[in-house]
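Worked example

This section walks through a single chain of length 144. The input is the sequence exactly as stored; nothing has been trimmed or padded.
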Amino acid sequence: MAFSIVPHGSDPEESMLAEINVTPLVDVMLVLLIIFMIAAPMLHPGIEVQLPEAEAKSLPLRVENPLVLTVHENGLVYVQSEPVHPSQLVERLLPILEARGDDSLFLKADQRLPYGSIMEVLDLLNQGGIEQVGLVTEPKGKQR
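Given that input, the structure is written out below as tokens.
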């Protein structure tokens, strides 16, 4: 029920209080919410690399935002999207893993890298006590 103040001696029809209609605003906000809910999972941190294809089944994700280590085609190593020198890799990863309360990470390596480069990174992780490493691949036959 809307109340209006009518000055003495004036017509009540002419002095109605205007109210803001919030229905269009709510509609726009709901549409934006749906768009962001759909688009958010498509955004993933890290550096784009050409992943090898495999028929392996996916591992269930135990954490919502997994820690991703990327080895680019040129040999650069990235933690999420930040470049890290291999000599400082373990020193940078251990505090992050401790803060997350999870000791696992995912390794994305470009398929054009030599096998030895990937093994060097895995060896560094193993020497630092990081043993739960998931290797990320593309499903066979997936269009890029």
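What to look for: The radius of gyration is 27 Å.
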